[in-house]
């Protein structure tokens, strides 16, 4: 039995990047031997075990064979006879197909270290084309390592185009596609993910709505540069689409509720945010009411952030006075005290109308002070 550290942990150590998760590979062992040593089996598709003390995952060396459509269309074979090289060759990229033993000796049969030095994302074998999910994974790695100068190899991009043309991308489940999109959105240069998808014709298959959205990636790039959270980045990506289309795209990928909600609101109200300084007090109040700034202040703040990223993408300007103006308006409306109205005996609809009137007065005073 031989145990190796494989994949991302080896790659990132060689790049001098922090190593978080470690994948372990066991060569020359049986399921029974692993269990006898105290490893707990998990998963039904292929033999993966939990270390009895560290809790880390250890997988038996395996080969795979294409047996159906999509990401899950594979038959796995794990055996003590499977070699390290046979296991590594089934991986996606050469930079992910390296291993280290306990002594730190590097095993690199497919020249991953050389591709790290060349800043190249290159597939290990032609079997790469059998897994449609790899199109999204390679695009995500491109987004992660773009700051280091990494590019997708021409021959790998050609295989990605082959996958796109095959129709296999449509076999991916919404959950699996979203998982890759979500991770890509949080990479340092998420716009590169979509640029690579466009370059290999996968964007037309997965997100054709973005093909006619010229500023989408620039807004997303700004959101990443300003360290915005996931739901703001998703809203920035889709902000040029019609609200109904934004809803349809978000539901198609089963995006989380906060992502769907904010993206739709940005699509509906972006122009109002941009015109905030000219809005009459009544329209300003309606905007605040729509966002329920009294109970959900963070959602309105995230909306403003997304609109600011849009302005930076379009104008390249560092100044967006609408942001502070709207935040101040929200604070003025929230500062209105409901207690005097309750103490005056108002209830129900009468209380609601009076509270709305007081908030309108507060916004009128705020607007006057801001203009003066």
TrEMBL record:
Its EC number is 2.7.7.72, 3.1.3.-, 3.1.4.-. The keyword Nucleotidyltransferase applies. CTP binds at residues 8, 11, 91, 137, 140. Residues 149-211 form the tRNA nucleotidyltransferase/poly(A) polymerase RNA and SrmB- binding domain. Keywords: ATP-binding, Hydrolase, Magnesium, Metal-binding, Multifunctional enzyme, Nickel, Nucleotide-binding, Nucleotidyltransferase, RNA repair, RNA-binding, Transferase, tRNA processing. It catalyses: a tRNA with a 3' CCA end + 2 CTP + ATP = a tRNA with a 3' CCACCA end + 3 diphosphate; a tRNA precursor + 2 CTP + ATP = a tRNA with a 3' CCA end + 3 diphosphate. Residues 4-122 form the Poly A polymerase head domain. Mg(2+) binds at residues 21, 23. SUPFAM superfamilies: Nucleotidyltransferase, Poly A polymerase C-terminal region-like. Its cofactor is Mg(2+); Ni(2+). Comprises two domains: an N-terminal domain containing the nucleotidyltransferase activity and a C-terminal HD domain associated with both phosphodiesterase and phosphatase activities. Catalyzes the addition and repair of the essential 3'-terminal CCA sequence in tRNAs without using a nucleic acid template. Adds these three nucleotides in the order of C, C, and A to the tRNA nucleotide-73, using CTP and ATP as substrates and producing inorganic pyrophosphate. tRNA 3'-terminal CCA addition is required both for tRNA processing and repair. Also involved in tRNA surveillance by mediating tandem CCA addition to generate a CCACCA at the 3' terminus of unstable tRNAs. While stable tRNAs receive only 3'-terminal CCA, unstable tRNAs are marked with CCACCA and rapidly degraded. Monomer. Can also form homodimers and oligomers. This is Multifunctional CCA protein. It comes from Pseudomonas capeferrum. The gene is cca.
């Amino acid at each position: 039995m031989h145990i190796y550290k494989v994949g991302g942990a080896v790659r990132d150590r060689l790049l001098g990047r922090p190593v978080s998760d470690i994948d372990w590979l066991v060569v020359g062992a049986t399921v029974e031997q692993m269990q006898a040593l105290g490893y707990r089996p998990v998963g039904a598709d292929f033999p993966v075990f939990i270390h009895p003390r560290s809790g880390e995952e250890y997988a038996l060396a395996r080969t795979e064979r294409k047996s159906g459509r999509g990401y899950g269309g594979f038959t796995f074979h794990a055996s003590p006879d499977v070699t390290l090289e046979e296991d590594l060759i089934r991986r996606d990229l050469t930079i992910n197909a390296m291993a280290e033993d306990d002594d730190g000796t590097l095993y690199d049969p497919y020249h991953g270290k050389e591709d790290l030095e060349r800043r190249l994302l290159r597939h290990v074998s032609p079997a790469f084309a059998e897994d449609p999910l790899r199109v999204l994974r390679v695009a995500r790695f491109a987004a992660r390592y773009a700051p280091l100068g990494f590019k997708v190899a021409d021959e790998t991009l050609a295989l990605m185009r082959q996958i796109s043309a095959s129709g296999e991308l449509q076999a991916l489940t919404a959950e699996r596609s979203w998982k890759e999109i979500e991770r890509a959105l949080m990479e340092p240069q998420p716009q590169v993910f979509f640029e690579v998808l466009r370059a290999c014709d996968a964007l037309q298959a997965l997100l054709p709505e973005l093909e006619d959205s010229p500023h989408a990636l620039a807004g997303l790039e700004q959101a990443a540069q300003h360290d915005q959270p996931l739901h703001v980045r998703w809203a920035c990506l889709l902000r040029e689409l019609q609200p109904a289309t934004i809803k349809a795209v978000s539901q198609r990928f089963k995006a989380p509720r906060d992502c769907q909600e904010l993206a739709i609101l940005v699509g509906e109200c972006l122009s109002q945010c941009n015109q905030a300084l000219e809005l009459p007090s009544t329209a300003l109040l309606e905007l605040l009411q729509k966002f329920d700034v009294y109970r959900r202040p963070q959602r309105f703040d995230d909306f403003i952030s997304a609109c600011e990223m849009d302005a930076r993408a379009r104008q390249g300007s560092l100044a967006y006075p609408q942001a502070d103006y709207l935040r101040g308006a929200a604070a003025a409306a929230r500062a209105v005290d409901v207690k005097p109205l309750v103490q005056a005996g108002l209830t129900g609809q009468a209380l609601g109308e009076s509270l709305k009137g007081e908030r309108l007065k507060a916004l009128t005073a705020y607007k006057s002070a801001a203009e003066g």
